[in-house]
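Student: Send me a single protein entry containing the residue sequence and its fold in token form, directly below this note:

Tutor:
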Amino acid sequence: MMQIDKNAALILIDVQNHFDNPEHGKRNNHGAEENMANLLKVWRETERPIVHIQHISNPSIPHHPGRDFKEIVAPLRGETIITKQVNSAFIGTNLEEHLRGNGIETVVIVGLTTDHCVSTTTRMAKNLGFNPYIVLDATATFERVSFDGNLYGAEEIHNLALVSLSGEFAKVVDTQTVIDIMN
């Protein structure tokens, strides 16, 4: 039976205002942030570790409001914030050191976008020996035009990203399942 231990970290990836920009196209799972907020509330109530990941591609560029965390899941004072410049939250950051230093083996991953930073971070978490869960209804992505000009819908991309992670790289679960299996 699956269980999420008391020291499992909730990792919220790139839940930033930038993703509200219509330039990204159509998005799936419009309730993802509410599900992230529900998980965050439970993590806070049970005093489990929380890590907010913030993507800042070029730190030399002055502050831009798109970098800010979405208010619904904004970090509270004392919660860990790790900034990154690439798609993996493990590259060029102290995320691995932070997790290991706090005895964290299980990570529950949510955020934006499923097929980019969420997927890359999940794969690396598994490759580094962590036990990742990815929450399917607390992640989301956007439609994309492929190299051959075909338009792929956000839901299709989301599902295929999760299919490619399921089993080998992570346990794919929904928000309610995570809450139900927390011990």
